[in-house]
Amino acid sequence: MLKHIGFIVFVCCLTLRSTAQPVFKGGQPALDNFITTKIVYPEYSRQNCIAATIKVAFRLDAAGKVDTAYVQDGPGIDLDEEAVRIVRMTSGKWTVPNTYAIGAVIVIPITFTPDYSRCNNVTNQSRQAAIANYKAQEQLQDAITNYYKNKYQGKGDPNVEKQITALKIQLGYDDSFINDLLDQANQKFKQGDKAGACKDWNFIRNIGSDKADSFIAKNCR
C-alpha cells in the first residue's frame, strides 16, 4: 500500500492579483486540510526523499469550478501530476465574488518536504540523480505502454515482446508494483476521483497486466 507517512505537505497562500478574490469554502485552514487529507504521495518521490515546490496554476468559472489546471513550475516528475490532481479536486469548493475577473490565473505553491530524520543519508546530488532517472525512465515506460496499446488493437509486433518484458523487469513493473498502483487507484476512487483512479487502472492494463480489467470495465467505460 502506498504510504505518505513521514512526509509533511505545506500549502502556501494563494497567489492572486485581483482585488476581489475567490475563497476556498472554509478559508485557508480548510484548503490546507483538504490537501493534506486528499494527497496520495507518489511512491517514487517518497522513496527517493525528493523535496520540491510545485506551483499549480488554474482558473475558476463563476460557479467556483476548476476550468483549467496545469503546472507552472515543477521538477517534471510524479509530484507535478499529484499536485495538479489535488487542485482539480478542489473544483466546486470555491466561492467566487461577482466582481472577480473570471479567467484570471490563480497559483497555489505546494511544497513537498521529506522527513529528514528518515532521509538524513540522502544527498541533494542523489535527489537530482533520482529526478533525472525518472525522466529517463519515462521514455522506456512509453515504449512499454505503446506496445501493449498496439497489441490490444491487434497491431503488436511479437518479435519485440521479449524486449518489452526485459524493459518491464528493468523498471520494476512486477506484482508488487502493480499492487501498489491498485492501492493508489483505490485511494483516489474513494476520494471521488474517478478520473485519477481510471488513469492508474488503465496504466496497469497498458503495462500488460489484467489485474485492473474488472475495475476498468465497471468504472471507466
From TrEMBL:
It is found in: Membrane. GO terms for cellular component: membrane. InterPro entries: TonB/TolA_C, TonB_C. This is TonB family protein. The lineage of its organism: Bacteria, Pseudomonadati, Bacteroidota, Sphingobacteriia, Sphingobacteriales. It is a single-pass membrane protein. Keywords: Membrane, Transmembrane, Transmembrane helix. GO terms for biological process: transmembrane transport. Residues 39-113 form the TonB C-terminal domain. It comes from Mucilaginibacter ginkgonis. It comes from the Bacteria. Its main location: membrane.
